[in-house]
Specification:
Elements (H helix, E strand, L loop, with lengths): L1 H73 L15 E4 L12 E2 L11 E5 L7 E3 L7 E15 L5 E3 L11 E15 L2 E12 L3
Antiparallel strand pairs: 1-2, 1-5, 3-4, 3-5, 5-6, 5-7, 7-8
Length: 206
């Protein structure tokens, strides 16, 4: 009887060890899945926040171009005044809400997203609420960059429209009737670069 009891006890102890290993594996798998889900949700939350900022920055650039067009109308100026520099149509906004720059304008020196002037910065002039600007080059940089392109819209002879790029102008007999505003945003998050762009056509309705 003693030998049988000892053999049964040995088998039970072996089964208990296997069950413990299986339970540990199941628990570890569950914990790993939960941790992966948490980190994935955090990454998606960061990505969503970046997307919101990017879209708002892009939209702001377009609204500034529209406001400048409207200001040109009120001043009896051609609608595209200050929205081009010859045939250079790429620019960055030069406005800080009126704190140091009272009117909306654009700097046509930048020609590519890699230019230092495309960096969007966090600024707080004179204790004012924190906001994003491309004017205060001494302010801390954000991960975002913004570059606008004001593509001329030409009405073709015989009908139809053409959209031009830097260095181009409407041909003889064609009329510039509007601008396609391209507002492009890029940003970096954990060594990954993302880019978004919004387009809107604005016309000389006056």
């Amino acid at each position: 009887m003693g030998r049988r009891t000892q053999g049964r006890r040995t088998r039970l102890e072996g089964q208990t060890l296997v069950e413990l290993l299986i339970a540990s594996a199941v628990i570890s798998t569950g914990l790993f899945a939960a941790a992966t889900l948490v980190f994935s949700n955090l990454a998606l939350s960061d990505r969503d926040s970046d997307e919101i900022v990017a879209v708002n920055l892009a939209r702001e650039g377009i609204e500034q171009a529209k406001q400048l067009r409207d200001s040109n109308w009120l001043a009896a100026l051609p609608f595209d005044t200050f929205l081009k520099n010859g045939t250079d149509y790429t620019a960055t906004p030069r406005w800080d809400g009126g704190i140091t720059v009272s009117t909306i304008s654009f700097d046509f020196d930048p020609d590519a997203m890699t230019d230092a002037l495309t960096v969007v910065r966090t600024s707080a002039f004179g204790g004012s609420p924190e906001f994003l600007t491309q004017v205060d080059v001494s302010a801390p940089a954000t991960p975002f960059r913004r570059l606008l392109t004001f593509h001329p819209i030409c009405e073709l002879v015989g009908g139809g429209l053409s959209y031009l790029n830097d260095g181009q102008s409407c041909a003889v007999g064609e009329q510039k009737i509007g601008i396609r505003v391209e507002s492009r945003i890029s940003w970096t998050r954990k060594a990954n670069t993302f880019e978004r762009a919004i387009y809107e056509d604005i016309f000389d309705w006056r």
